[in-house]
Amino acid sequence: MRVIVSLIYLLLISALWPVKARAQEETPPPRKVLSIELAFDHIDVTSGFSGAHIEVFGHRRDKFTDVAVIVKGPEEDVIVWKKAQLFGAWINRYGIKFRKVPLYYAYTHSDGEVFENRDIPQEAGLGVDEMMLGKAVMKSDDTNASSYQAALIKTMRAKDLFPEGPEKIRFINDYFFRTRFALPTNAPTGIYKIHSFLIKDGKIVERDTDLLKVEQVGLNAFVYNSAHNSAPLYAFVSILLSLASGWFVGIIRVRP
């Protein structure tokens, strides 16, 4: 009797399984509420580069939400040194290392509940201070990293690589918006990440990442790559060019 019941049970499962699998296949994926696009996904840095702008366009399907966008440049470990006097000379004696610091950072957000919940900026890294959380590598528990972090932020802001505050985000209507981020002339080259966040009811409900490439091209790229990848050859050619230029000027110089 048990064998017959087991066989009937297996037959029912076999008959219903294709229907269940077919229903799962036909279920459409959830639609994204937030979508952003870049006006350009590539920025060329030439010898006459005078800065550029990262243009971001976006659309949200739910107007009762908030939007935040963050742009991060290539990341590097940065050491901030503090000078101290030793045997009458001022030298870099104390330092703190900050891991994976973006060499360019900017952000924007819509007006609303973004900062009503303090967990949102910390979770998204929205704001310079929030972005820097947890990046300091301290050698001892009594080391105070705040002054070192403040010095790093001040230096990056002086170079226009960190913002004083959020950029402006402009809504064309309840759903479409645009914003732009300024790249200075000294902007680092590499892959930039554009992080977008959709916020509702005090929570981040959607997030996405787009990529932008900032790359040197032309003669500027040739000189840069030669100096960094073939330093001895670059130095040798530079010396030859200097000698040749001096020799040529000596020939064409008009003597009395």
Describe the structure.
The protein has helices at 2-26, 119-124, 128-131, 146-158, 218-229, 231-252; strands at residues 34-38, 42-45, 52-60, 66-72, 75-86, 89-102, 105-109, 136-137, 169-171, 176-183, 190-200, 203-216. It folds into two domains: 34-216, Immunoglobulin-like (Sandwich), CATH 2.60.40; 217-248. It has a five-stranded mixed sheet. It has a four-stranded antiparallel sheet with strand order 1-3-10-9, with no helix packed on it. It is 32% helix and 37% strand. Helix 5 (218-229) crosses helix 6. The protein is α+β, with helices and mostly antiparallel strands and 256 residues long.
Per the principal axes of the C-alpha atoms, what is the gross shape? flat
**What would you say the CATH architecture of the largest domain is?**
Sandwich
Q: How is the biggest beta sheet arranged?
A: 5 strands, mixed
Total count of domains:
2
Strand order of the largest sheet: 2-12-11-4-7
Query: Strand content of the residues, in percent?
Result: 35-45%
CATH-defined topology of the largest domain? Immunoglobulin-like
Could you name the CATH homologous superfamily of the largest domain? Macroglobulin (MG2) domain
N-end to C-end Cα span? 125 Å
The secondary structure category is alpha+beta
Number of E-type strands: 12
Broad CATH class of the largest domain: Mainly Beta
Q: Write down the overall mean pLDDT.
A: 80
**Tally of helical runs:** 6
Q: Low-confidence runs (pLDDT<50, min 5 residues)?
A: 5-17, 19-25
